[in-house]
Structures are given as C-alpha cells and as structure tokens.
Design goal:
Length: about 250
C-alpha cells in the first residue's frame, strides 16, 4: 500500500527509528516494503513568493485558514506520481468517527492520500472540490491533523497482509471478533508470576482446559463490554457471519 500525506510538517512522518512510524509494527511494515509512507510538504506547491499556505479567515476571527491553491496543486501533483488511484481522506473533528470497521475498509485500498491540516482548518471550497472522506479520530481537538493521520496509518498498516506475526494476530483484538454481530472489548491478560503483590492469576488460566479458557475469556469480554461500552452491544456489525451464538442486547 502507498500512503501519501499532505502536511506542512512532513518530517513527522519519517519511517526510520526513532520516529513513531519507524519503530514497532509500522516500522517493520515500512522496512519490509508492505507500506510506503510518502509525506509531501504543501508549502512546496504554494505559488506565492513567501510559500505561504495559510491566510486570515474571511469574516474575521482567530487563527488562520489553509488556502485552496497550495492544497489543490499538491493533491494534483502527488496523485500523478503513481498510477494507483488514491482514496482521499481529510482528518477533521467534523468527520465520520474512525472505527475498526472503517480501518479494515481502508486497509483494502491500494493507496490512501491523507490531508492533515493545521491552523483553524482548510478553506471549505477546496474540501468540496476534492470531496475526500472526512474522518475524525475522536471528540477532542488536536493542534493539527498530523497525529490523527499517524493514528490512522498505524491502525491500517497492522492489518496489511504479512505485517503481523502469528503471535500478534489481530483475530483477538478488541473490536475485531464478532459475537452474534457485535464487536467486543478484549479480555484481561496475565503472565508470570502466578502471584504478584497478593494478586493471583485466575485459576481457570492455569488449568490447561482450553475449552474452559475460551469460555471464560468470552464471558470476560461480554462483561467488560456490558459495563464499559454498552454502546458496542447495540452496534450491529454489518455482514455478520451466520452464527449459532445467542443474540445479545
Ligand atoms: N480527528 N484536528 C484537524 C485542523 C482543522 C480544524 C478545523 C478542520 C477544521 C482531529 C480529530 C483534530 C485538529 C485535525 C484540527 N481541520 N482530526 N485540525 N479529532 O482534532 O481528526
């Protein structure tokens, strides 16, 4: 997969250590060639003499707005660098919430183009002209779209074929497994020692009965989801496989 990022802070997207996308799973994905992250400085496409990319908002108010021309020209130029058609994504608190379902959908694309705006936002007319998918990573305000773009990249890249080893399979992640069409939170995990500061590991995990362990883990997932995220139990996952599990909710 190729992931282009349009930003005024391209150095944030380095794919070598110690950068965030250069270590751990995303670092391995880049080193093995399963993903190529190409960050382009929008400033390089500004046609004004100071390479300005922002200007004051019409109607007044605080902050600056990213201008249409540099972003439009950057998108056009970057898209022409590769024949694969890019799915355009604009990171914004006004976007559709990012979910594991959407991450899975994006992981099947050959190419993504992420637009990470700083300032108060991007001129609405260039958003309309580009008609990107608008995505929010959560209901809070970041200083820019770059960290949101990196969150999306991290979540997508670990789903690319061959990126995760068997021992880190995503089949048991929170949200990935479905029970009667619902995505559940993960179960608790334990490792040695068997007792730590007076706290014991649940006996069932030490007994070696793998059927019983699977039942216990599922019960834990249901309980945690019920108490912590009841909203997930009313979210029916689309295209849920036929299931003999009892219906929840
Ligand atoms: N999930 N931000 C975008 C610039 C901006 C401001 C207003 C459009 C309108 C965010 C989020 C997020 C901060 C990215 C503001 N763009 N992005 N940036 N939450 O907070 O995605």
């Amino acid at each position: 997969m190729r992931i282009d990022v349009l930003t005024t802070f391209p150095e944030m997207f380095a794919s070598t250590p110690p950068a965030a996308l250069g270590v751990s799973i995303p670092g391995r994905a880049a080193a093995s060639g399963r993903v190529e992250v190409v960050a382009t400085d929008v400033r390089d496409y500004s046609d004004n003499k100071h390479n300005k990319t922002d200007d004051r908002p019409f109607g007044g108010g605080p902050g600056m707005v990213m201008m249409c021309q540099p972003l439009w020209d950057a998108v056009t130029a970057v898209e022409a660098m590769d024949t694969r058609v890019a799915r355009r994504v604009y990171l914004t608190p006004q976007g559709t919430p990012l979910t594991q379902r959407l991450v899975e959908e994006l992981s099947r694309e050959p190419r993504l183009l992420l637009i990470a705006g700083h300032y108060e936002g991007v001129d609405e007319r260039v958003i309309q002209a580009l008609s990107p998918l608008e995505i929010s990573i959560g209901d809070y305000v970041l200083s820019g779209g770059e960290l949101a773009a990196m969150v999306l990249i991290d979540a997508v890249v670990r789903l690319l074929p061959g990126v995760l080893g068997d021992h880190e399979s995503n089949q048991q992640d929170s949200f990935s497994a479905q029970v009667a069409g619902h995505r559940l939170l993960d179960c608790p995990h334990y490792t040695r020692p068997r007792e730590w500061q007076g706290r014991a590991v649940p006996d069932v995990l030490l007994g070696g009965d793998h059927g019983l362990i699977a039942k216990w883990r599922l019960a834990q997932r249901l309980e945690r989801t019920t108490y912590r995220r009841p909203d997930l139990l009313t979210d029916q996952v689309e295209a849920s496989p036929p299931s003999s599990e009892p219906k929840l909710g």
